[in-house]
Description:
Layout: H1 15-32, H2 55-69, H3 84-97, E1 116-120, E2 123-129, H4 135-143, H5 147-154, H6 163-170, E3 177-186, E4 189-200, E5 206-213, H7 222-236, E6 241-247, H8 251-259, E7 263-266, E8 273-279
Parallel strand pairs: 5-6
Antiparallel strand pairs: 1-2, 2-3, 3-4, 4-5, 6-8, 7-8
Amino acid sequence: MASGVACVWRPGENALERDEIRENVGSAIEAVAPGTDLQRIEPNRPLREQVDLDSLDWLNFIAALSERLKVPIPPSEYGQLETLNSAVDYLLGARARLPGRFTPVQAPDFGSLARREYLVRGTTVAVRPIGREDRELEADFVRHLSTEARYKRFMVTLRELPEAKLKYLTDVDQIKHVALVAATQRDGSTVLLGVVRYVVDDSGTNCEFAIAIDDAWQGSGLGGILMHELMSIARGRGLKTMEGIVLANNARMLKFTHQLGFRGARDPEERDAVRVVRNL
């Protein structure tokens, strides 16, 4: 096999299909972690103990498998891909349950505007569309961001956003302006942990994104979850490209967007900013 990942055949199985799936798993690993020695991967040991995959790499790995094999993988089942063997077993079963299983089919759109729940750092987090009723939650979310985080998101240092800005951020049409929140329950109250959005430009084919994550949840993988959801919506609605503006000194965000497949170029109108663009 091209991937170099060892294959174990089990009686009664379609060995060629198992080979194909295992090869795709290997290719997906190589795509997110170039240089990985696939021959050294132990099939029953967690992949993330053997391969340098951060939380975003892990999401990209799952997305790559879903796209390559045309198999929908809901968030509640991500844990079933923990090891090489469990991933192959899960994907074999998922393929078997699809109609017309020997013909690649288009996976259902998991980027629709629906509420979905994820387990992040052991906490249940709901990702859902923002609404005008979230104005106070949004205000509190921004209020509790660090000064640095507020500046990187809004490029201003104000602690309180004006009412007009809060209305703009929460009273959206979810068509030209799409916005999602990541929310959880804390001491009986709803708390926002992250917000992501895009706005469609006048051409109707491109959009500009923005994202903010609570300081305590930076590096948790939550940003990757929100961006994958947002890109799926944009792609499902026929948008061609997504772009954003990142401060040139924001190395963490530049790395984050690079992992998501964005390419960067200095903005000629903003010496201190980088414009990142991704084809959808």
